[in-house]
Design a protein that fits this description.
10 strands; alpha+beta; 3-stranded mixed sheet; about 210 residues; about 30% strand; 7-stranded mixed sheet
Length: about 210
């Protein structure tokens, strides 16, 4: 059962901390009538450390800031050219459990990859989406009072070197990959964004 209304915001490149605060505020203030929202955006360079994050996975952050956040998971990297989707959804209203939401997010990413002719898949023991064993998208969620926030990050066309300064998602030696490296022609960022928006709407049961 889908909620009556979904607001999708295309925010461009936005700083991490103000966006985090806006997510927290929306989640804290919403009620059963508040429309669900998905924010599609990019961040300047930042490492974020999940609530169970272990400091030993931060190998050499250097000049890139590290921000502690309340999502699940370990450390990850955000930067320009990575498509981030934050999902502020009322899961009770949608009739979704957390595992079902994670599955919908992973399958949305698999759907997007399929539109480019790329075979991708989630892993049961390591949330995210992988191509030939290399990670192309990361997931991290928090649910508060039945409502989700945080979301997913898809590597599109970015400087991948900062991933070498961490153990991505807590896995030493985990290879990260991006869409640009899998296609003959670099993908248009807005095209990827629109495909992800369509896939999320479909998997979550929203009409376009």
């Amino acid at each position: 059962m889908a909620a009556a209304e979904l607001i999708v915001r295309h925010l461009g490149v936005v700083e991490y901390l103000p966006t985090l605060e806006a997510m927290r505020q929306l989640t804290a203030e919403r009620d059963e009538r508040t429309p669900d929202e998905i924010w599609l955006l990019q961040h300047p360079k930042v490492f974020t450390q999940g609530q169970a994050g272990k400091p030993e996975h931060l190998l050499a952050p250097g000049d890139i800031p590290v921000i502690q956040v309340e999502r699940g998971g370990q450390v990850t990297y955000h930067g320009p050219g990575q498509l981030v989707a934050y999902l502020m959804l009322d899961l009770r209203r949608l009739g979704l459990g957390v595992r079902e939401l994670v599955t919908a997010m992973e399958q949305s990413l698999v759907d997007v990859m399929a539109t480019y002719g790329i075979e991708a898949a989630p892993k049961a023991d390591a949330p995210g989406v992988y191509v030939n064993g290399e990670k192309i998208a990361s997931l991290g969620l928090r649910v508060r009072h039945g409502c989700s926030f945080h979301g997913l990050a898809l590597n599109v066309d970015m400087d991948m070197s900062p991933f070498g300064r961490i153990n991505p998602c807590g896995y030493s030696g985990l290879k990260m990959v991006q869409l640009r490296d899998l296609l003959e022609t670099p993908p248009a960022f807005d095209d990827v964004l629109q495909r992800l928006e369509r896939a999320l709407r479909a998997r979550l049961g929203y009409e376009q």
